[in-house]
Amino acid sequence: MSAPVSSIREPLIIGHKTYHDITENLVAPTEKAPPLSWILIFIPAVALLGLGTFAATWTVYGGIGTWNLNRTINWGWDITNFVWWIGIGHAGTLISAILLLFRQKWRTGVNRAAEAMTIFAVMCAGFFPIIHMGRVWNAMFIFPYPNTRGSLWVNFNSALLWDVFAISTYFTVSLLFWYTGLVPDLATIRDRAKGIRKKIYSFFALGWTGAAKHWQRWEYLSLILAGLATPLVLSVHTIVSFDFATSMIPGWHTTIFPPYFVAGAVFSGFAMVLTLMLIARKVLHLEQYITIAHIESMNKVILTTGSIVGVAYITELFISWYSGYIYEQWAFFNRAFGVYWWSYFGMMTANVISPQFFWSKKLRRNVTFTFFLSIFINVGMWFERFVIIATTLARDFLPSSWSYYSPSWVEISLYLGTFGLFFTLFLIFVRVAPVVAIAEVKHILKGAGDQYVGENATKNH
Amino acid sequence: MKKRKDVVYGIYNDEHDLLNAVRSAKDKGMEIMDVYSPFPVHGLDPILGLKESRLHIAGFFYGMIGTLTAFLGMTWIFTKDWPTIFGGKPYWAVPSFIPITFELTVLFAAIGMTISFYVVSGMGFGVENFVLDERISDDKFCLAFDKEEVDASAAKEFLESTNVEEIHEKVVKA
């Protein structure tokens, strides 16, 4: 009783798969020894993680003075990286929640990996504000709890505290959503496994049986969590943008920031999903589940959000001129032609010009081109955050304190370290859990398998 | 004393065969123990007569608890326990309480519903519920009868009359 599907719709599962084939193909990466390509990525990832751990220890030992931040530029790579990683963490929930509400079937191929990516990216993001505190052992002071320091609470009026709540909520809800989706697939692995492996997967599969009532509740829960996660994901980057927008710094206190940040977050998130999935697809041989149709759909999202970001940049410039307020005008002039002009033009090229290539269907469906463009966009979005933060701070109200900043080896290592963390976790994840949602792919098979739809269809519904 | 269940079940290869079997079992007025499938089979719930889940109603109340916790908590802290002026705002600065109130609403609703889901479904870390057939999580669909509710030979006869693949009997810990 699948929903009627147009026969001209492009299939999303290729290779005339049966339900059993889907299980075999998608569980395979967790059962076999890791391929050489996996090991070759894993080793540098762990090495980077080690470097990051060393740099974090160095920072805690020596203090924030080991960074090149100064009195004028007091937010640098740390907060840039934080905003960048949070942005990347947005695609997962967007794919799994918003596309679920819109009933986009292509989400099933990529949602699991994108959600995992979200969780790991939020971990990487959360690391930066915490290490930026300097005295990381007091990090729990950011949470409101009754304490013996007198009647003393956190400032609920501060955008920074809203951020604490937004990000910890986002992390928790994403984790619940991801894990609940994973449970039936863990049961699939459990039922195939033997010995100690079976015991481990039994523990984590939570006693899933596949009973009709459980499926009903499971679908309900997914749908409502999706409904909750949709405003949540929009609120998170909105609140991150409040960190800047509620301040009194020309170039920061603009009302366009929330929508502009959210669009940028989706933009960079999809770019990162593509970077990761194109690698995973190759290494784990998932070409029949993550098809060219999936890549094209994601490229369309990139084109849309990239254009929104472009319009936002131009609107920002226009409004600063139109405001007639010379400090605002100067802030934007400085952004484009000041000391950090190179990052502004890097951002403009990578974020505004490069996604426009995706108007071409041929390029949208070109895997190699998509891969390089996705990396280009990631770099561009990092520049965006750097432009907003460093350029604005470098030229503050008092010309005598104007300054320039470039990161120390510690800051660079911390950033590389988060890549290490991100890839290490992701690579472990693809080895222990199915990277494509098995049950959900089976569910759409009869509406999206190539034996049912498309030009190679051999069966009717 | 451990509770046991004596089960007769049929294995189907396709969800349509399963749906047809469930439909005719219901028509015959047979008591179905449960139906198992590797993915949610749409159209099954109304045939089985499963009521709509009330998880969303619970979610609403969990959310309300979050809203009240956040809003009343911040109100108490900033007007009674620790009245402090920030940026010239009044003590009770409602607009700046909104972001956190929203976040906690979502957080409470999500955590509450997820925990409810697992508790009500009898699931949790380390829980081992009986699995009738290990292929159910792969590609088989299963219709099960409890021998206490349905006569065993009648159930087998019924299963044979449907487009069934295999028929098995099994005693499981309930």
Task: Give a verbal description of the structure.
The complex is a heterodimer of chains A (461) and B (174). The model of chain A has no long low-confidence stretch (mean pLDDT 90). Chain A has a domain at 19-142 and 153-247 and 271-298 and 408-448. Chain A is globular and about 75 Å long. With 461 residues, chain A is mainly alpha-helical. Chain A has helices at residues 19-31, 36-62, 77-88, 90-101, 107-132, 159-192, 195-204, 212-245, 257-283, 292-322, 326-337, 341-353, 361-364, 367-394, 409-432, 438-448. The relative contact order of chain A is 0.19. Chain B is α+β, with helices and mostly antiparallel strands and 174 residues long. Chain B folds into two domains: 4-52 and 128-173, Alpha-Beta Plaits; 55-120, no CATH class. Chain B is 45% helix and 15% strand. Chain B contains five helices and four strands; from the N terminus they run E-H-E-H-H-H-E-H-E. Chain B has a four-stranded antiparallel sheet with strand order 2-3-1-4. In chain B, helix 3 (55-81) runs antiparallel to helix 4 (98-120). The model of chain B has no long low-confidence stretch (mean pLDDT 89).
Specify the structural class of chain B: alpha+beta
User: Could you give the distance between the termini of chain A?
Assistant: 8 Å
Compute the number of structural domains of chain B.
Answer: 2
Radius of gyration of chain A: 23 Å
CATH architecture of the largest domain in chain B: 2-Layer Sandwich
Dominant shape of chain B: elongated
How many DSSP H or I helices of chain A?
16
Give the strand order, joined by hyphens, for the main sheet of chain B: 2-3-1-4
Task: Please tell me the overall pLDDT of chain A.
Answer: 90
- The separation of the N and C termini of chain B measures 11 Å
| Global geometry of chain A | globular
CATH class of the largest domain in chain B reads Alpha Beta
Instruction: Tell me the helix content of chain A.
Output: 55-70%
Query: Mean pLDDT of chain B, nearest integer?
Result: 89
Strand segment count of chain B: 4
Oligomer: heterodimer
Low-pLDDT stretches of chain B are: none
Largest sheet composition of chain A:
none
Q: Major sheet of chain B, described briefly?
A: 4 strands, antiparallel
- Assign a percent range to the helix content of chain B: 40-55%
Please report which band the strand proportion of chain B falls in: under 5%, 5-15%, 15-25%, 25-35%, 35-45% or over 45%: 5-15%
